[in-house]
Specification:
alpha/beta, TIM Barrel, 2 domains, 16 helices, 41% helix
Length: 485
């Protein structure tokens, strides 16, 4: 894009971004009068706790390296209008390295901020005394969560305030627990609870007038897909071949890419790239293709897929276009196997209106991830050329199903991504992927980096934690609530 083209585009998009923002605020300012449903739940009690696990091997993505995880586990007690009391459970990693991206706030500071914010969110959620659907509870409480994050940022004297994305990740366990409790209270899987029988408002109230008369059940499957392809993550520092290993871990699990492909019959590979060195990124992809091609030929497999994730590290869209062109020259077969590109440039879309994805999206779907925090960011991403959406339960079940509906309405490419979700959070994520039409694959890398957190879940969900034919078996994800416990 020339400077002249950029100036023309900026003059076109900037007013549009303001109109999208104004429309978003206007819709929020005039909510539909709230009505109740017999299936609504009221919160009686909220409890939370933390669970720590060390990675078996460090995971590098977006220029960061993670070697341990803290899970936030939440239990809620709710009651229905008829007096039935049940408990719901939600669990999610506190992914501060991803959701609180900062050069001035340390890892320990951001993790502590999320832990303290979790306590504030617990208190806010516990104080909610009305009966409602979980999606409406979340919508009413999220502004209070954001206020609490702002206040906490000041109290802790953080060099940067807690981001919206980080607040959503912290709140996601609470939202999950409410959806779980709602389903159990009504004797249904939560995906049966998104129609007019259980929701007081249609989707127009959440997503705009284009959705008038429609309910979420139009955009989710009541019965899950029988299986979902697994996207195996190749971290930016993961060994590809035996020559890349300095010292083996020796824990019985695969340690090279060919070993993983052989063990789990992998056909989908997610390549983490650093976005700071074009030559190195291209060489990384070429090396992975070389190793994968040799292994797949040995297995007799002729078709496999890639996605590339820069974790917003590309300086600009020009870097991405150069990357695609050089990959085409070095290994043209990669482009035929490339299913999508995930969030190549900065997450602050309004501050980077020159990073338009139209040309790249003609080559391969370009998926928004870190930027997607609300309906406004979804619409702005579409104007900037993004052609797909990455759904993540770590942003909240309510957020995920609403964004899934918006993406389907506007015919966006859909995928479900990970936050190295182990245990209950992986079951939750797999269930989302299996219940959204058009989603064919899911990233699930806890088996690679933090298998210890999966141990107590393997017997309950063997088809999720034991990969067969490169897939997660999801047909059995039909239990009450989220179907986790």
């Amino acid at each position: 894009m020339t400077r002249r083209d950029f100036l023309k585009f900026s003059l076109l998009v900037a007013p549009l971004a303001k109109r999208v923002s104004a429309a978003h605020k206007e819709k929020k300012a005039v909510p539909t009068e709230r009505t109740s449903q017999p299936s609504d739940i009221r919160i009686l009690d909220v409890r939370h706790g933390f669970e720590d696990h060390k990675y078996r091997t460090p995971y590098q993505f977006g220029g960061r390296t993670v070697d341990h995880v803290t899970l936030l586990n939440v239990d809620v007690r709710v009651v229905t209008a008829s007096g039935k009391e049940v408990s719901g459970f939600g669990s999610m990693p506190l992914g501060n390295a991803w959701s609180f991206l900062s050069q001035v706030v340390t890892y320990d500071q951001s993790l502590e901020a999320m832990k303290r914010l979790a306590e504030n969110i617990r208190a806010i959620t516990a104080s909610y005394n009305r009966s409602a659907h979980p999606i409406d509870i979340n919508r009413e409480l999220e502004p209070e969560y954001l206020k609490a994050a702002t206040q906490l940022s000041g109290e802790m004297k953080l060099a940067e305030p807690i981001p919206i994305l980080c607040t959503q990740v912290t709140a996601s366990s609470f939202d999950a627990a409410l959806h779980d409790a709602f389903g159990k209270a009504n004797g249904i899987n939560c995906y049966f609870g998104y129609g007019r029988q259980h929701m007081a408002r249609d989707l127009a109230d959440y997503l705009g007038p284009e959705f008038r008369g429609e309910f979420l059940d139009r955009y989710v499957l009541r019965r899950p897909a029988s299986s979902i392809f697994l996207y195996h993550s190749v971290g930016a520092s993961d060994p590809i071949t035996e020559q890349d290993i300095k010292q083996r871990i020796g824990d019985g699990l695969p340690e090279t890419l060919p070993e993983w492909i052989e063990q789990d019959q992998i056909t989908h590979l997610k390549i983490k790239l650093n976005g700071a060195d074009l030559k190195a990124d291209v060489e990384r992809v070429v090396s992975i293709e070389r190793a994968a091609a040799e292994t797949q030929r040995r297995r007799g497999v002729k078709q496999w897929k890639y996605c590339c994730d820069f974790n917003e590290r590309c300086q600009d869209v020009g870097y991405l276009m150069s990357f695609l062109e050089q990959v085409r020259k070095r290994a043209p077969e990669v482009l035929t196997r490339l299913q999508y590109i995930e969030q190549p440039t900065a997450r602050d879309l309004k501050a980077n209106l020159n990073n338009v994805m139209h040309e790249a999206a003609k080559i391969v779907p370009v998926v928004i991830d870190e930027s997607l925090v609300d309906l406004e960011s979804f619409h702005l991403s579409r104007k900037l050329g993004y052609s797909g959406v990455a759904l993540k339960v770590c942003k909240g079940q309510s957020h995920a199903v609403l964004m899934a509906a918006a993406a389907q309405k506007y015919k966006a490419f859909l995928c479900v991504q990970d936050l190295t979700c182990p245990g209950a959070s992986l079951v939750h994520s797999a269930s989302l992927a299996a219940h959204i039409p058009g989603v064919l694959s899911i990233e699930a890398n806890s088996r690679q980096y933090v298998p210890s957190a999966n141990e107590t879940w393997k017997e309950r969900f063997p088809s999720i934690f034991k990969i067969k034919d490169g897939k997660l078996g999801t047909a059995g994800l039909t239990g009450l609530g989220l179907g986790v416990v």
